[in-house]
Amino acid sequence: MASSNTYRLSCSVPGHEMDVRGLAATWFPEGAFVSVSRDRTARVWLPDSSSNGFTEMHCMNGHTNFVSCVCIVAPSETYPRGLIATGGNDNNVCVFSLDRPDPLYVLKGHKNTVCSLSAGKFGTLLSGSWDTTAKVWLGDKCMMTLQGHSAAVWAVVILPEQGLMLTGSADKTIKLWKAGKCEQTFTGHEDCVRGLAVVSDVEFFSCSNDASIRRWMVSGECVQVYYSHTNYIYSLAVFPNGQDFVSTGEDRTLRIWKKGDCVQTIRLPAQSVWCCCVLPNGDIVAGASDGIIRVFTESEERVASAQDLQAFEDELSKATIDPKTGDLGDIKMEDLPGREHLNEPGNRDGQTRLIKEGGHVEAYQWSMSESRWIKIGDVVGGSSQQPSKKIMYEGKEYDFVFTIDVNEGGPSMKLPYNVTDDPWLTAHNFLQKNDLSPMFLDQVANFIIENTKGHTLGSAPSVGSDPFTGMSKALFPLWSGRYIPGTGSTVSAPAGVADPFTGGSAYSSSGVRQTITNIYFPKTDGVMFEQANATQILDIVFPVLDILRLAVRHPEVNRQMCSDTEGVSLCNLLLCLMGPEGRPANQMLALRTMCNLFAAAQGQELLLKQREAVLSRASDLRSVCNKNIHVALATLVLNYAGHLHGQPSELEAKAQCLSVASTALEVVQDKEAVFRLLVALGTMVSGDDSAKGLARSLGISSQITKYCSVSDPAKVGDCCRLVLGELQ
Predict the structure, then answer these.
(1) How far, in Å, CA of 366 to CA of 351, rounded?
(2) What is each CA distance from 164 to 157, 159, 183, in whole angstroms?
(3) Which of 63, 255, 629, 708 has the fewest CB atoms inside 10 Å of its own CB, making it the most exposed?
């Protein structure tokens, strides 16, 4: 079979309506794979030899919320074709066979989203959850619960040796378990562990939000660290040879690693490449936030037609790239070269080059296999007035990461630098790390000084308007206590530097964040509904409900109505009125009453105790086409978020709030409701790394990006950008 040693598109597989979050190669049929999606379905795809593509063989439904992970249970005497296990945001694991669309059985026990699954010998199943635990299942029974992580368990895998299991967590650690007992804790990652993959009985890979991949021995030693991605890494898959592997992440890329090096970078026309798997024939399957599954192959026989390859390239070229989410650097259009710059060949596969074309900026990537520059999108939002975010390099954030090409055509060297660092010490460390002559010390230090000067502390206005009440209030910069640029001049290329971004004798830089004034979140004081509508009161089943809504704002009434027995009865009544068969007016007033219960301590305590039932019932009302209900629902989520702010131990409660907000944003159209949900999201993630991790894994960034452009009212767009800033 002819091989080009370079992976190219084999086919694109549409079918899912939302993000593809999990993939797994099946035992049967041969060459097939299964995918799961936020659209709540799992689908089996069968290879179609006549078209080099895949056709949908089987669709499975069983989850009531997003499906986030999948694994294959090996064939047994009872199930000779194996089983498919899926985990979802409904806290359940569904187990399917290939001959029916509904689950054979549902595994219940987790208290929050099931985000990772792994199958072992004899039908053993291991599940990881946001509830900070992993559970071991045999058939439909939970055999044991693995407790020890302090944050969500985002990755699990069963090692070939019987009884050994691994869990990776948002607490930045990996744990090795045997017979339910933690035998070893692996530390080294500087952010949440997102994926695990088995190499052998004694070795495994891990990937993390710190943009690194690590290779570990089961004994505890980290034997190698791999860097190439520029953002969070979500998934790993090992090739059949047991050594080479593939990775995907938030930087829009799928990267192929052989003999320890990243040998190929494939960009996709989607921001988040959530998952990947390797088929027995060596082909790679990738799922992304655009809902499309793409298969890549190095076999000439399975490469897509010239027409399909061109269509993929055209789709990629039409993508828009925000430099704040990638590694393109701070873009100053007047300094960019024109199209003639593409006449020079690149130095390495995946190298990025920017050019100025007709008043806008285009990004190109060098393909070593085709010896040409391929357009990967148009750059939007980059200018000297809108510097991009800090750059992640080797797991740490820097204000600048310069690319230094010492010898033309030789390997590039990275020089990371923070404005608060000493440029001479940074230059000294750079020369030592790269075995360069100390004679270059002055030259490197002066280069750093010249290309970072002009960045000074920014300032924020002192007063502004409260977005809820319109009243003036004191403002504080979102990034107070750390370096905030924005008032000085921007970096310009010194004379003699051929290309300010890539190429020979080049450097690329990225400024830090602008001063951002945040008047929206965290919002910890409750939002109340204070006005009554007399006409509406006469037209509802319970006229006293609207009066009650106003009365519970009084501390004494709140205390008496929300005491132990009376409080439970009140809550049950309101939940009954919020039922799916209820009248919209009653549903709205019941929601508003719950919002107003947050006015005093007794009501807050009651609603926190009843949180799971209240938010579950409230979330069901998102499907009611009524903007007043949507605003009340958003306000209830916001009030819960405000009360939970600053309480990192309440991770389960925050996870439910994030999930409710995310599902509500799928259907809510009213801008005020959207705004309050955005403030709720910002309040929950502000200052809480675990909550940020949960929000990222829900795909909230890609979900809310569309609101950035909203200018009427401006507070929606402003708040959205602030939330995205928190989640970067």
Answers:
(1) 5
(2) 9, 6, 9
(3) 708
CB-CB neighbours of 125 under 10 Å:
26
Amino acid at 591: L
Q: What is the pLDDT of residues 420-471, one digit of tens each?
A: 777 777 887 787 777 776 667 777 877 788 777 654 333 233 334 445 543 3
What average pLDDT does this structure show over 69-88?
A: 95
CA distance 72 to 23: 10
204-233: per-residue pLDDT in tens?
999 999 999 999 999 999 999 999 998 899
Task: Say if CB 652 and CB 670 are below 8 A apart.
Answer: no
Which residue type is seen at 467?
Answer: P
Q: How far is CA 306 from CA 10, 223, 300, 309, in A?
A: 11, 42, 12, 5
The whole-angstrom separation of Cα 279 and Cα 299 is 13
Would you list the DSSP string of 644-710? HTT-TT-HHHHHHHHHHHHHHHTT---HHHHHHHHHHHHHHHTT-HHHHHHHHHTTHHHHHGGGGG-
CB proximity list for 270: less than 8 A, separation 6 or greater: 252, 288, 289, 290, 292
Measure the CA–CA gap between 504 and 614, rounded to whole angstroms: 61
Query: How far out from the chain centre does Cα 192 lie?
Result: 11
Q: Show Cβ contacts of residue 654 under 8 Å, excluding neighbours closer than 6 positions.
A: 641, 644, 684, 688, 690, 691, 694
Query: What is the per-residue pLDDT for 498?
Result: 28
Residue 472, exposed/middle/buried by CB under 10 A (0-12, 13-18, 19+)? exposed
pTM of the predicted structure, to 2 decimals = 0.59
Q: Give me the torsion for CA of 460, 462, 467, 473, rounded to 10°.
A: 150
pLDDT at 479 over 90: no
Say what the pLDDT of residue 453 is: 65
